[in-house]
Specification:
By secondary structure, the chain is of the alpha+beta class. It has 15 helices and 23 strands. Bound molecules: adenosine-5'-diphosphate (ADP) and magnesium ion. This is Phosphoribosylamine--glycine ligase.
């Protein structure tokens, strides 16, 4: 069986890596892939834009591909899956309509209200005046969100009224382009954030192991938000009983809401949740694809072949699939970034030591790298994600950090406190 993975980040490297762990998968084509997928045995990069529907369809047909797995949200939001499906190609990822659940926060809020899914109270605005009036009535803290895709930069958690006011003005002055034409203003929630990635064939939905990400660049969760600086799975913040509530209160009603809108959604539905101090899960947002870096922590624990799950979703056989099998272990992924990220940073840094860092339980996923004439260099702010599996969290973290010690590139930066929330949880289970 051959597959195409669309995208070029650590998530896509992890997806290709996991597919190729199965003897049934003989080749993965990454479009466009990165230095890590270039080095992966039986994996081949094809230089093509991830939104090039015609090119990807041709590549799928020429190579007799069993399915296309789409990593990032942008091509899904632009209708890549619809275009491929119209050529009878199996696709794991929703069409343009379903992708609105991520591409429009107002649309997602509407669906949640109709489907009775617990989420922060919110109001949607199309002009600055009424939005400003609203925050003045509500007061701070309050959260201001550009409606559309803004590469993780569209949300301001405003602790003061002044911050909320400038966020509203920025969005309506076009800082996020059309993504800011509408603004969602919502209630500020406190609690721990958990990512529940679920897979669906549009009829049945099943969660993967819950994970936690670290959004901020600085230790102790300080500084600006990033694409994600590290993750681990599973998380004690979401024990099985709570995950069961997420299934019943969030995933199933949301899938029903999609069905009620006539949407055939096959792929990942990612629920970004907050577990409130009262212990209730509430939705912060939905994504229409695998999370990055959560995928780099979740997939190393998955024993079930990924292609079986993907094929079952594409062919609407998820209900008859046996329960997914997981390693009875923990995984941690620590991201190594270029100095300066998420602000300005250098590219083209030479990377060394990956081969010595890897072992049977440790894998280095490439995020922003390229391989050219045998030289591995950086191309992005997030450069690598070092994932390790071990019987418990502290050993998985220790393993990931000791692997990091063997990897060098100039000015590399990583957070030393990945997992700090679990450590706190372990010492104060009720906290
Ligand atoms: N209602 C909220 N209360 C508190 N924090 C929030 C709320 N909504 C979002 N956040 C914070 O802002 C981050 C980004 O918001 P999110 O809706 O996930 O947007 P995106 O991922 O598209 O940038 C979240 O990970 C969370 O830390
Ligand atoms: Mg988010």
């Amino acid at each position: 069986m051959k597959a195409i993975v669309v995208g070029s980040g650590g998530r896509e490297h992890a997806l290709a890596w996991k597919l190729l762990r199965s003897p049934k998968v003989t080749e993965v084509v990454c479009i466009p892939g990165n230095g890590g997928t270039a080095l992966l045995p039986n994996c081949r990069n094809v230089a093509m834009a991830e939104t090039d529907a015609e090119g990807i369809a041709r590549c799928a047909l020429v190579n007799n591909i069993s399915f296309v797995l789409v990593g990032p949200e942008q091509p899904l939001a632009q209708g890549l899956a619809d275009a491929l499906r119209s050529e009878e190609i199996r696709v794991f990822g929703p069409g343009k309509k379903g992708a609105q659940i991520e591409a429009s926060k107002a649309w997602a809020k509407d669906l949640m209200a109709e489907a009775n899914v617990p989420t922060a109270a919110a109001a949607v605005f199309t002009d600055a005046e009424s939005a400003l009036l609203y925050v003045q009535q509500q007061g701070a803290p309050i959260v201001v969100k550009a409606d559309g895709l803004a590469a993780g930069k569209g949300v301001t958690v405003a602790m003061t009224l002044d911050e909320a006011i400038s966020a509203i003005k920025a969005a309506f002055s076009g800082q996020f382009g059309a993504a800011g034409d509408r603004v969602v203003i919502e209630e500020f929630l406190t609690g721990q954030e958990v990512s529940v990635l679920a897979v669906t064939d549009s009829q049945t939905i099943r969660p993967l192991l819950p994970a936690q990400d670290h959004k901020q660049i600085g230790e102790g969760d300080t500084g600006p938000n990033t694409g994600g600086m590290g993750a681990y799975a599973p998380t004690p913040v979401m024990p099985p009983a709570l995950l069961e509530r997420v299934q019943k209160e969030v995933l199933e009603p949301t899938l029903k809401g999609l069905q009620d809108r006539g949407i055939d959604y096959r792929g990942v539905l990612y629920a970004g949740l907050i577990v409130t101090p009262a212990g209730d899960p509430k939705v912060i947002e939905f994504n229409c694809r695998f999370g990055d870096p959560e995928t780099q922590a979740v997939l190393p624990l998955l024993e079930t072949p990924l292609e079986d799950i993907v094929m079952a979703c594409c062919e609407q056989r998820l209900a008859s699939m046996p329960p997914f099998v997981w390693k009875n272990a923990a995984a941690a992924c620590v991201v190594m970034a270029a100095e300066g990220y998420p602000g300005d940073y250098k590219k083209g840094l030479a990377i060394d030591g990956i081969a010595t860092a890897e072992d049977a339980e440790t894998v280095v996923f490439h995020a922003g790298t390229r391989l050219s004439e045998g030289e591995l260099t950086s191309t992005g702010g997030r450069v690598l994600g070092v994932s390790a599996v071990a019987p418990d969290f502290s050993s998985a973290l220790a393993k990931a950090y000791s692997a990091i010690d063997k990897i060098q590139f100039p000015g590399s930066y990583y957070r030393r406190d990945i997992g700090h929330r679990i450590k706190r949880h372990e010492s104060a289970p009720d906290g």
